[in-house]
Each structure stands twice: as structure tokens, then as C-alpha cells.
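#structure-requests
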Amino acid sequence: MRILLAEDDAATRTVLDKQLESLGHHVLTAVDGEEAWRLFQREDPELVITDWIMPNLDGSGLCRRIRDAGRDHYTYIMILTAVEKSIGYLDGMAAGADDYATKPCDVEELAVRLRVAERILSLQRERDTLHELLPLCPRCNRIRNENQEWQQVESYITRMANAQFSHGVCPECYEKHLKPQLERWKKRSGTG
């Protein structure tokens, strides 16, 4: 997994970096929240592990920026802090964190938390893939919506994409279907 680690303490950053790499992850490191934000925008990691208290931009601010970024896929965020867990826990979760752990975090605990993160990210990717599949009836070309009701494709797309439709005929359909009908009509009506 591609992990962005934001930690201002050099010794802690080095230890965590080595632990994460030993667990088989690719790690990008940042010395503060601002550098982490720049790396996040450029590298698009799957998971961000951030210290709670950092210079320039703290963990809470970084979480908020990530959640406000409006990415089309989910980023899992874990806050690590030396501060007592009950202090700042609700603020971190309100900022958009998915997990919260106190430092020092031993490698086994970190491995378990990362496994949970991987499962959640995997489920999120699966949900996104399934959401992209549209059940379409090949006979009548109606689509099943989120309420499990069948409706015309045009009305579904209009509602979901806020789009408007105009009607036209593609050249192939004109030649194959419409043109022969028009010629038959002309012959019958004596206008052709």
C-alpha cells in the first residue's frame, strides 16, 4: 500500500518509516502537515498516517484538507499522537480521521490497524466498481435505479447527471430504418 507518513519528530518518523516498510508498504515521508499536503496532492497515497501536533499544519488541518479535496476515491487517514487518546479524539474524528492511535505504536498493533485499513479500502473500491455498473434490460433498454425500480434510461440519466436530452437519428439508423419507412410513406401517399 502507498502510505504518506507525516511526522515532525525525526526519530519517530524514521522508526515508523522502517516499520511500515518492513510490513511491505511503500512509504512517503513529510516533516510537517504542509509538506504532507503537497505530497498528498502529487502522489495520491491510499493511506495517510499523520501526527496530531505538527508545525505549519497540524494533523486535524491535514485531515480536513484531504476530506475537502473531493477525490473520486477514498483515502484512509490514521492519526498518531503522543497526547492522551481521549484528548483530541473527537476533534480528529470530526476532522475526518478513520483511526486514532497513541505513540509509540508497536509494529504488531500497526500491522493490525493497517490490515483493517486495507480491508476498508478494498471494500470501498469494490463498492465504487459495483456503483459504476448499471443494470440495463437488453430487451426494453430500461435501467434499474437505486430503489430497484425500472425506468427509462433517459429519465435516469436526466435525474442522475442533471442532463437534458434532444432527439436525433444517427446516420446508420437513418439509412437502415428511417429512410426505407419514409420512402414507403412517400410511395403510398403519392408524394415521392
